[in-house]
Design goal:
With 540 residues, this protein is α+β, with helices and mostly antiparallel strands. It folds into 3 domains: 105-294, 2-Layer Sandwich (Beta-Lactamase), CATH 3.30.450; 313-385; 392-533, Histidine kinase-like ATPase, C-terminal domain (Heat Shock Protein 90), CATH 3.30.565. Helix content is 54%, strand content 15%. It has helices spanning 31-37, 43-54, 60-103, 107-119, 152-164, 169-179, 181-187, 189-194, 205-211, 229-235, 268-351, 360-385, 396-406, 408-413, 433-448, 480-486, 500-512; strands spanning 128-135, 140-147, 196-198, 216-218, 240-247, 250-258, 392-394, 417-420, 429-431, 455-463, 466-473, 492-493, 497-498, 516-519, 526-533. The protein has a 6-stranded antiparallel beta sheet with strand order 3-2-1-6-5-4, sandwiched between helices. Helix 4 (107-119) packs across helix 6 and helix 4 (107-119) runs antiparallel to helix 11 (268-351).
Length: 540
């Protein structure tokens, strides 16, 4: 029988087999490889096999079955190889994506990588993606960022650009962030603004998808009863995919992806691949968001620490200046009286001394030097008087907490307690911090002086443009006579000690114009009330 195929020859020349081309020269001398790789798929071999069947040879049907089974197995192996190649590329892509997401704490970079991965041909190959993030403070799910073309012309331009520049995922994401992030956000601004849904709207499709933990494929959106007409027309597509982002059972956000340009069907494999992708993205977004909030808090705390340090330095300077002022004032008052007497006598003698008297020059010198010393004393007294009180805007909560800490050791020694709960809505008070702090400490110490087991409660509440500071001890019982003695300078009672500290507090507060009221009802208890202004006098 004359065979059309070259399978019966041990060696052939180039051109004898139509399936052997340049690069397959090694098959010319290898009959076995030629049959397995080329002949089994050759039309000439199929005709030879048909002629063999027609010869009625008993093995003809067997060879036909073996040939068909071989081709089937070969096709399955090729499909499997193609599948494994695709999975290998997918694993490499996910590894690259995971490496980028794990190494970044920048929210914009994470979002750029995530959306680029969804829409890049080397990634999941979707045409368009919208990212919605949950705003826990305002309890809404709102559109944050989008990527993709809005028409076919723009899509062609983008695809041509990507084809000309063979870039990996990280490079694509960096290019998107640097050159297109702002423009993409502006391009989809109209859609993102409308993709805002309250978390409480549990009947809304986006909120239901957010509550779920698996991707949801929406088909026939314009006629789907679960999809509002507004959402379908807003996206402008009939089929789209909803992918919730969850991290440790926390709802991070939602991704909407579609193929608005190519209209390629979203398969089950696409959904499973994207489901694997959502967890690392959600974790990376939450971590980046927490890092951003941490940086904000750190900046705020650093700023508060710097301000506190400045305030502490100011207080130290004020205390030093006040000490200098008290010393100079004391010395100046001690010198002024004798100096005035000397100056008065000298001027009186000068008046009665004739110009021809040789002692007149000495007397004039005494008068002149005395006048100069009096001027210096006036300057010193004016300077020291201006040192206190020094008023500014201060945090009352912080002032009280610091004062309580300053006397904490004494409270422990006396087995007493002092409770204060800050009111976070309080405005700043316009006071001399050093003097008011001294008064708070003095009132606490005075209340527990000579006693044990006392419980002091401090409250600060805002009222009509001022802050009322109350220091209360419901266990203590004070008579009116004892109260009067307590507020009288240098007065002494048997069980209360001297009243100098409280009297000094009243003097300090009076200088600042701060009302100070002490209430001791007959049924028991004592309450000190200080009213602190929240505005400067000229602004009230």
């Amino acid at each position: 029988m004359d065979w059309e195929c070259c399978w019966d020859r041990d060696a052939i020349a180039m051109g004898d087999c139509p399936n052997i081309r340049e690069g397959d020269e090694d098959l010319l001398a290898s009959r076995q490889r030629r049959i397995l790789e080329k002949c089994c798929d050759c039309a000439n071999f199929s005709r030879d096999l048909q002629h063999f069947r027609e010869s009625r040879h008993p093995l003809a049907d067997v060879f036909g079955m073996l040939h068909d089974e071989y081709r089937l197995q070969k096709n399955q192996i090729q499909s499997l190889v193609s599948f494994l190649d695709n999975k290998t590329l997918e694993v490499r892509f996910l590894h690259e994506l995971g490496s980028v997401l794990q190494s970044s704490v920048d929210l914009e970079e994470v979002l750029s990588v995530a959306l680029t991965a969804i829409t890049a041909g080397k990634g999941f190959g979707m045409n368009r993606a919208f990212l919605l993030l949950t705003d826990r403070e305002h309890a809404i799910l709102k559109g944050y960022l989008a990527i993709g073309p809005r028409n076919y012309e723009e899509a062609s331009q983008v695809w041509n650009e990507i084809a000309c520049n063979d870039m990996d995922l990280q490079t694509l994401a960096q290019n998107f962030r640097q050159n297109k992030l702002s423009s993409e956000r502006a391009k989809f601004h109209d859609i993102l603004e409308q993709l805002s849904v309250p978390i409480s709207s549990t009947d809304h499709l986006l909120i239901r998808a957010l509550e779920d933990k698996h991707p949801i494929l929406i088909e026939d959106a314009f006629h789907n009863p679960n999809v509002t007409a507004g959402l379908a027309h807003l996206l402008g597509v009939d089929t789209f995919l909803l992918m919730p982002l969850h991290s440790r059972n926390r709802r991070v956000g939602l991704i909407i992806a579609d193929n608005c340009i190519t209209h390629r069907r979203i398969s089950e494999n696409d959904m499973h691949s994207l489901e694997t992708f959502t967890f690392p993205v959600a974790f990376a977004i939450e971590r980046a968001s927490l890092y951003d909030r941490l940086q904000v808090e750190l900046s705020r705390i650093t700023e508060a620490g710097n301000k506190l340090k400045e305030q502490q330095e100011l207080i130290v300077r004020m205390e030093k200046m006040a000490l200098v002022g008290r010393i100079t004032s004391s010395i100046a008052h001690s010198i002024r009286n004798p100096l005035m007497i000397i100056g008065g006598f000298a001027r009186s003698i000068l008046k009665n001394t004739p110009p021809s008297d040789p002692k007149r020059d000495f007397i004039e010198s005494i008068v002149s030097e005395t006048r100069q010393l009096e001027g210096v004393l006036d300057e010193i007294l004016n300077y020291s008087d201006s040192l206190y009180p020094t008023r500014d805007f201060w945090d009352v909560n912080q002032m009280v907490e610091t004062s309580v800490r300053d006397v904490q050791e004494l409270l422990i020694q006396r087995a007493c307690e002092c409770h204060f709960e800050p009111e976070i809505t309080l405005p700043l008070a316009y006071i001399d911090l050093k003097q008011v702090s001294y008064c708070v400490r003095t009132l606490i110490v005075s209340d527990i002086d000579g006693r044990s087991g006392e419980i002091v409660r401090i409250t600060a509440t805002g009222h009509d443009g001022s802050i009322q500071l109350r220091i209360e001890d419901s266990q203590r019982k004070v008579s009116q006579d004892e109260l009067d003695a307590l507020l009288t300078p240098f007065a002494i009672t048997h069980d209360m000690g001297t009243g100098l500290g409280l009297a000094l507090c009243r003097t300090m507060l009076d200088k600042q114009g701060l009302p100070f009221v002490v209430i001791a009802p007959p049924e028991g208890g004592i309450t000190y009330m200080i009213t602190l202004p929240t505005q400067k006098e000229e602004e009230s």
